[in-house]
Amino acid sequence: MLEFTLSTTNYPQSSRRLTRAAISILSEFLKEGELMHDLDLALTEACANVVRHAYEGERGRLEITLHIHPGEKLCLEVADWGSGLDPNRVCFDAPDPSAEGGRGFFLMKQLTDEFQIKRLGDKNVIWMCKLIKESEWKTLE
Amino acid sequence: MEDVGIERINDCLVATCSGEITFEATPKVKKALEPHMARKDIRALVLDLRQVVYLDSSGISMLIAVNTRMQSVGTPFYLYDPSEQVRKTLDMVQLISFFKLLDTEEDLRRLTGPPATKARRAET
Questions:
Q1: Which residues of A touch B64 (CB under 8 A)?
Q2: What angle is formed at CA A65 by the lines to CA A9 and CA A140, rounded to 5 degrees?
Q3: pTM for the whole thing?
Q4: What is the interface pTM, i.e. ipTM, of the complex?
Q5: Does any CB of chain A come closer than 8 Å to the CB of residue B107?
Q6: What is the share, in percent, of chain B residues with pLDDT greater than 70?
Q7: Backbone torsion region of residue B19, taken as left when φ is above 0, otherwise alpha when ψ lies between -120 and 50, otherwise beta
Q8: Nearest partner of B92 among B46, B57, B58, judged by Cα
């Protein structure tokens, strides 16, 4: 298993740059295409959630850790040290079509095979795993 | 994201976006569209999404907000030929049939073309 950690401050521009950097690392392991777009979107949604909600308007740390299991799966961990999410208050259903918000978690769940919200001490984690077909890998090392 | 281009074609307004519509870019699109949303001199607002390669939930929220606003002023809002990635994202959140879509250049031409003149009945 390979592990990469990237972190920044929760500015909107920094958040997107951080996601792009993570995708750049993943592109060394995975072929370009729909899968990369899906992983990018899942990470972007998780990071945007931290930017918008975790620190209640204050600045704070946003961290992505990639857990790469070559030939098998990827686990994406997005962490913050802010106010935390109550998993019981998070809605994973598709909202009414005319509702303006509330699609972030729905998208993350749709795009991944495993989704969890965890609290580890003072660290809040959005944990997403995706099983990756052997044909999608560039390298298994 | 590049600047939002605004073009008037007859009495329709076509706004063109490119690149990514994400959390950081959404305010720019909203700001560009805002002055045009309550205009009484247009009969449709079209958002050209052919060159948009990425749309996140903030972008989706923005599209819904514009759609709601245009409904409230009685002017139809159309998405023009969203890219494959944008279509996929809209489909995933079950909104692909929620928006009015113009799929082809011909659809756009038909909408933005000059109003058809009424055929005059030949006088006898």
A1: 97-100
A2: 145
A3: 0.90
A4: 0.90
A5: no
A6: 91
A7: left
A8: B57
